[in-house]
Design brief:
about 400 residues
Length: about 400
């Protein structure tokens, strides 16, 4: 009797779980109970699992990848959640995002942590580690899947701080020293000859200290709009602009922060100049034909095939910046990613990719002030110019 009651309880829990995860369309048996196998392939695999079901276990592991993302409230975490949502396909493809601790730690996790397949890191992190002499020759131990998007530098300060130069000698929070914000902030200040007093504080705590007057500024390098930064409120707080001066132009891009994204920090219709640095989806450089290599290859196929879905709502607007074919200086592409690009390349896609690269490489003007509609209009003008000048690529 006890065993039977336990069995009934287990079946009841399974039915409840299925109701939570099911789509509106589900089926019931004659007794009115939900059949989990009819509403979720993933649940079907779980409920059919037994200790002797080696094929199920092997398939689930072979088709699951782990992704080291970033800290809570940052863009990396949102991208990880988006990938899991868009790519999960029963037991045929599954992405497990892991909350990370920033770009520096993610690079270490990709290298050393067992079970980590992928990670989102920042383009200037590896350069910083090499320049400071903190690493040996580790560049060839990484490959990149694709450049993702540009991350903007947000400098939130009290209204008495009008420029970056005003932060000389002031207390500035640059997140924890294992994150990418720490790296980018220090690099920017060094190049501009500004010497703040750095505070290595987790950002949620740092914003409270800023409001209380214990800090003069908090820096966050995250894709705009940043959910965490958009929640910062205070009558005496604003963004400090970052001029796109010559010392920054070799490794960073110009961008802007917009009032519509941060209404509590920018007056209506306002814009604040800033700089941006690329975020990268990276992996360990596994030998070809190994199990881990195959898992990443399987992920690449699913991700690249579904990118257009990710570039539509409700996913993060930064997905629209992703151009799969964009090159990345100083990094080697994961070979199956390059194979996919070669198989899907053509005159039209090549032309579009070159146009996107041209826009990204510009060092004059403010790229971030353009809307997607304006970019598309520029692209159409670019195509007309190619045709009129006879520079359109020949079809093969």
């Amino acid at each position: 009797m006890i065993i039977r009651r336990l069995t009934d309880l287990a079946l009841g829990c399974a039915a409840g779980l299925a109701l939570l995860l099911a789509t509106p369309a589900f089926s019931q048996d004659k007794g009115g109970e939900v059949d989990p196998a009819t509403v979720s392939e993933g649940l079907k695999a779980i409920f059919s699992y037994s200790s002797t079901s080696k094929s199920t276990r092997d398939r689930l592991n072979a088709n699951t990848v782990t992704l080291m993302s970033g800290t809570i409230g940052g863009t990396y975490v949102q991208f990880g959640a988006d990938l899991a949502s868009a790519l999960d396909d029963g037991d045929r493809m599954r992405v497990l995002p892991i909350i990370g601790r920033g770009s520096v730690q993610s690079m270490a996790d990709i290298l050393f942590l067992k079970g980590v397949d992928l990670g989102i890191v920042r383009a200037d992190t590896l350069d910083y580690l090499e320049r400071k002499g903190y690493t040996g020759n580790i560049r060839n131990q990484f490959v990149y899947i694709t450049k993702l998007y540009n991350e903007e530098m947000h400098v939130v300060a009290r209204s008495s701080i009008r420029s970056l130069a005003d932060l000389n000698g002031r207390r500035v929070a640059v997140d924890l020293p294992n994150g990418g914000t720490f790296v980018t902030a220090i690099t920017i200040f060094e190049r501009l000859g500004i010497k703040p007093v750095y505070a290595y504080i987790e950002q949620r705590i740092a914003y409270e200290k800023l409001k209380n007057g214990e800090l003069d500024a908090v820096i966050a390098v995250q894709g705009s709009p940043s959910k965490a930064v958009s929640q910062v409120k205070g009558d005496d707080l604003h963004f400090v602009p970052i001029p796109y001066s010559a010392p920054l132009q070799s490794d960073y891009l110009p961008s802007v922060l917009k009032a519509e994204d941060y209404p509590s920090l920018i007056p209506p219709g306002g814009r604040v100049d800033t700089i941006a640095v690329p975020a990268i989806l990276a992996a360990y450089n596994w030998p070809a034909k190994t199990e881990r290599y195959g898992k990443v290859e399987h992920f690449v196929q699913a991700f690249f095939d579904r990118l257009k879905d990710l570039q539509r709502p409700p996913f993060h607007p930064k997905w629209k910046e992703v151009v799969l074919s964009a090159p990345l200086k100083g990094w080697n592409r994961f070979p199956p990613a390059q194979v996919w690009l070669d198989q899907h390349s053509g005159p039209a896609s090549d032309t579009r990719a070159k146009f996107e690269q041209f826009l990204a490489a510009q060092t004059t003007g403010r790229q971030g002030t353009r809307t997607p509609e304006q970019d598309e209009a520029l692209y159409q003008q670019f195509l007309k110019w190619q045709k009129s000048t006879g520079q359109a690529e020949a079809k093969h």
